[in-house]
Amino acid sequence: MAKKGTGYFDRKGHFFKTAREATESDLAALLGQIGDGESLAPGIAHTLLERRSDLERLFAEHDEMIVDVSANGGSVTDLGAKVAKLPSRPAV
């Protein structure tokens, strides 16, 4: 007897049983081929989805830093007086 079910499709139209699998497929496609041979993208996509809240927090912190730089005239604080210059060495 036939049964009713729910399925999910990634952006390429491939069917998946769970929304998580479909999203991981989309993330892997977005990342493209990573590494030689079999791509590392599916594993990275899985990790990205697993660590989503941490990543969102990092991006929010990054956005705050960018706003701070823009508010300061678009330049990073001058560290010239705080950084020691190393003596130059002759080329060997």
Automatic annotation (TrEMBL):
This is Uncharacterized protein. It comes from Erythrobacter insulae. The lineage of its organism: Bacteria, Pseudomonadati, Pseudomonadota, Alphaproteobacteria, Sphingomonadales.
